[in-house]
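To illustrate the input format used throughout this study, we show a single complete record. The first block contains the structure-token representation of the backbone; no residue identities are included at this stage. The design step must infer an amino acid for every position from geometry alone.
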């Protein structure tokens, strides 16, 4: 079974929320792909999801394609998650916080080796997540 939906978002998600969404999607068997402006990302990939969700601007649309037996449950879970995304952020545990720091360091260290498009996404992400 395959489902496709378009989600309208009005702000980007923080890195913590992207991690929460990826962890949520990992619990399902279905394959999940998010696409924004013809760039697709695996819904179970942290870096791919960051490239989609941390660069969202007002009015951007994200297309979600879900393929698998539990696709209806995935779609419902994503919609519920995005509705609650504006709520107070969940406090991450030590290892999750370490993972966020590791991703940020890896992205910063490898900026010189990326194509201009990827570099732009990484810089946008780093600007929105650093305090």
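Output of the design step:
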């Amino acid at each position: 079974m395959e489902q496709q939906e378009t989600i309208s978002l009005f702000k980007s998600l923080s890195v913590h929320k992207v991690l929460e969404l990826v962890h949520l999607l990992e619990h399902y068997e279905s394959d999940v792909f998010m696409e924004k402006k013809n760039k697709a990302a695996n819904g179970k990939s942290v870096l791919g999801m960051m490239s989609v969700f941390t660069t969202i601007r007002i009015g951007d649309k994200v297309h979600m394609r879900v393929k698998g037996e539990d696709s209806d449950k995935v779609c419902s879970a994503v919609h519920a998650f995005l509705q609650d995304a504006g709520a107070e952020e969940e406090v991450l545990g030590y290892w999750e916080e370490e993972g966020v720091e590791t991703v940020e360091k890896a992205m910063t260290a490898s900026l010189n080796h990326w194509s201009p498009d990827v570099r732009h996404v990484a810089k946008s992400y780093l600007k929105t997540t650093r305090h």
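Structural context for interpreting the output: The two ends are 42 Å apart (CA to CA). The chain has five helices and four strands.
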